[in-house]
Amino acid sequence: MAIVIAVSQGKGGAAKTTTSVNLAGALNEIGFSTFLYDWDLGKPDALKWKGQGNHINWIELINKDNPIEDIESAKSKNDFLIFDTPPNYEQNAFKAIMAADFVIIPTSANYLDQENAKDAISVPMLAKKPFKILMSKVKKGTREGREIEAQIGKQDISFKSIITDRNVIAQCPRSSQWIGQFAKGSDSHRQFVRLAKEVVEWTKIDHKINLDEAIL
Ligand SMILES: Nc1ncnc2c1ncn2[C@@H]1O[C@H](COP(=O)(O)OP(=O)(O)O)[C@@H](O)[C@H]1O
Ligand SMILES: [Mg+2]
After folding, report:
1. What is the pLDDT, as a whole number, of residue 210?
2. pTM surpassing 0.70?
3. Distances (CA, A) of 176 to 57, 173, 192
4. Is 158 in the pocket of ligand 1 (CB under 6 A)?
5. Closest ligand 1 atom, CA of 40?
């Protein structure tokens, strides 16, 4: 049975779709069968990214009339399901979180986004879902970037992996490839593989704790 991860943030442009597609690509690459459902019916950017399906065959739009059937079927065939969600806590954003086991909150470095992240954290907390913040679009070599890297290691609500701001990441949707195909071996590719490994560790550990609690 697949582990289900929703990528969620109230703010548009927070790198939800970028995170969803490249994390799913990296999980597939390291050997975990992963399928992505795009819940953003108004602006299905993940589906558009897939394009004609020559490079990516693991993205579909969620069926708005019967999401449960889609999810249950995909769960039985995969190790991970990733949900890319709409902004502004539209109804589908909440549904995706309710159907998820874990929540990833991508947050870019600027102050407004960090304020937004505080709000975003409250949603998985209320839903009682384990969550982690992913620092995205981090500008390497800037003071801000260094401050973030110094902070990250101290907080266990953040992934140790960060995703830096790179042109190749912004370019790869147009090629209908994830970063591991578009810029294989690049530092961005390596960052998403590292994130994927961290996600595997995180979901395994929490999974085990939940099971132990269930036995007690
Ligand atoms: N690490 C990054 N480096 C460069 N551009 C990025 C990065 N992450 C996201 N972007 C760009 O930022 C914009 C918003 O990202 P997107 O994933 O579509 O956000 P959301 O799905 O939250 O609305 C897109 O143009 C995307 O290409
Ligand atoms: Mg999006």
Report:
1. 54
2. yes
3. 11, 5, 17
4. no
5. 21
